[in-house]
Amino acid sequence: MGEPLSSEALFLIVERLFLALLVVSLLALVAVVARRFLLERGGAVECYLRRAVGPHRAWRIGCGRYGSDELSWYRIFSLWPRPAAELPRRGLVVMGRRSPTPEDLAELTGDLVVIEVGWAEPDGSDPKEPVYELAMGEGALTGFLSWLESMPPGTIWQS
Prior knowledge:
This protein is an alpha+beta fold.
């Protein structure tokens, strides 16, 4: 068996390990900030998302990016390049609008508006229950509703 490490050698190992962890943490932070900058530069808006029903109903902060046929929602604190949720535009219905409840205010701020969304039934009728809830500011909500009601020129929806 080898000799025990001296306190100086042990201190040097711990110091280098700490510096390596610090560098990795800083690189991850820079990557998250750069990803958010690129998302917002591409026209994304900040909004919160949660499932309307189910066991995991915590609000998650993210950015919504409008596409021609879907809203792609990305988590803010993630390095994953793909959206965490995609809300297809076809058949998307806003089922309700409200202010945050006292329970919501534990995770949201009072200046946000919460909307419930779902998708139309196959027969064209309105959905019976919401699938997601989105929380966003008034300006972002106006943009969302405009996106939902408009359709890019030349777009042909497939049945």
